Amino acid sequence: MWDEPYLARNAANHVPLTPLTFIRRAADVFPDHPALVHGSHTYTWKQTYERCIRLASALTKRGVGLGDTVAVFSPNTPALFETHYGIAMAGAVLNANNTRLDPETIAYILEHGEAKVLITDEHLSPSVGAALKALGDDHGILVVDIADDQAGPTPAGAGERLGTITYEELLAEGDPAFDWQMPADEWQAIALNYTSGTSGRPKGVIYHHRGAYLMAMGTVAGWPIPMHPRYLYTVPQFHCNGWCHGWAMAIVAGTTYCCRQVSAKFIFDTIADHKITHFGGAPIVLGFLINAPAEERRTFDHPVQALTAGAPPPAAVLQAAQELGLDVMQVYGLTETYGHTVQCAPQPSWDGMDFTELAEIKARQGVGFVTTEALDVFDQETGAPVPHDGVTLGEIVIRGNTVMKGYLKNPEATAEAFKGGWFRSGDIAVVYPGGYVQIKDRMKDIIISGGENISSVEVEGVLHRHPAVALAAVVAKPDDKWGETPCAYIELKTGKSVTAEDLIAHCRENMATFKCPKHIVFEEIPKTATGKIQKFVLREKARHG
Q1: Which of 36, 14, 308 is nearest to 182 (CA)?
Q2: 262 and 308 both lie in a single domain
């Protein structure tokens, strides 16, 4: 009797989930509440909604439609925030990208993602311009320049207009009364994010509207976030769509303060002057604050909630952040899970605990968000859950609606990631009593530096291109500032010589600076009998060397 035809879903009782409904409601219910603050500019929710509609209208007029890719290269600006709504309103897919990528990788992403439009900040013109030249004059991409009058001094060599229209001129083409459409299916792609993975070539991770909706809702519930927070966007909005916080802010009609470039002084000043209540960032952001000189520090007497993710933060960092007045909660996730899907949810029993002991507990990654259907740690050989003893190692596996659709144009990697009906994280962890997981190592040879993923394979590929290098192996080396940095072990060709400085310079010429090794060690690289590099030996050497 439960599946009678008259009980079938219909337009009255079933609507596809999408974060686009959040901004429509925020504009309707809180039209005059500030949504975005960027330097001297402030936009209300009504104004922000209208600008998003104009963007959708202008893109539609220029032939952008269902399933088309719009790539964006921008720091955290109102334009990048607006593209998270406006592009989806046109039925298209947002591809927000790391602003520190090298031209070769940018060109690959534009080509692989089949970008129809490129919206790019003028300060990024050297790298983006070189990528466009590499694609050739017939690339066919509509290029739109973001001319940000709050950007500060233009870096040397930057500031070139790459397109024929600016972002504000594009918005002016749009109709504020444009009748944008909801997605017909919540499984429809909303975003494409590239992650380094372990192959050296970035993989395109596809998000759907349903996952974006639930991730935003889960963040509001799990942090938790009250109505009308003042949120400082220190998380790059190109990184897992800024942990989906831009969509979450519309749920609670918060005010987002754009952070174009992270610095301790800017964060302290913004927290103190605007009474920021929430912000997020990699442990390096906490490090900036903890290690800031006295002249850059400000005191504040209101509660500030902070999320941190990326490289696991040392307990000492958490303790020092607490002493600054920050209530820090660690979260964990991957690009493939829309960012943080695991949280170190606080327990009442922690109240009054000695902070040295508490910091060790808060350094654990934690338990699944309420929107994470299942989180576990599986034995790699048997596939069975490991005991909750805080000792037995296994791989973190995740299941739920905030897991990607898959990797673009890569069915093999998608099938491998979803083997056995779980998303395989590649991260090795233990589980404590109570279900809190803690990462102990990584299966993937990914280095997390300042919250950004660096593929060791990619760095090794560049090093191997130097004529003096016979063999290169790159592993993570702990770093007090960045969390981890690349450390390269090098074997030279017979009769060849090169200095560490020369190799680092070679890397800087061929890849993004943040990916370059900070340490070079010349020695014979340990190998198995079959010639496989024993990276676990090198990791130990880098950790203690």
Answers
A1: 14
A2: yes
pLDDT in tens, 315-334: 777 888 989 999 999 999 99
Residues 46, 193, single domain; the answer is: yes
Which pTM does this prediction carry? 0.87
- φ/ψ (deg, to 5) at 207: -100, 150
404 burial (CB, 10 Å; 0-12 / 13-18 / 19+) is buried
Of 238, 180, 186, nearest to 208 by C-alpha is 186
Instruction: Report the CATH number that the domain containing residue 476 is assigned in CATH.
Output: 3.30.300.30
* 8 Å CB contact between 503 and 466: yes
Structure tokens at 134: 């590499």
What is the arrangement of strands in the sheet containing 406-407, beginning at the earlier edge strand? 165-166, 142-146, 115-121, 69-73, 93-97, 189-195, 203-208, 406-407
Same domain, 403 and 382: yes
- pLDDT by residue (tens digit) across 78-134? 999 999 999 999 999 999 999 989 999 999 999 999 999 999 999 999 999 999 999
User: Is 141 domain-assigned?
Assistant: yes
Are both 253 and 336 inside the same structural domain?
yes
Same domain, 141 and 176: yes
Q: What is the distance between the alpha carbons of residues 14 and 6, in angstroms, rounded to a whole number?
A: 14
- Domain shared by 331 and 313, yes or no: yes
Domain that holds residue 396: 365-442
Question: CB within 8 A of 179, min separation 6: which ones?
Answer: none
Q: What is the CATH number of the domain that holds 410?
A: 2.30.38.10
Residue 296, Ramachandran bin (φ over 0: left; ψ between -120 and 50: alpha; else beta): alpha
For 411, the enclosing helix (H) or strand (E) is helix 411-417
Q: How many domains does one find in the chain?
A: 3
Reference 256, options 229, 283, 275, 238; nearest CA is 229
* Three-state DSSP state, 111: helix
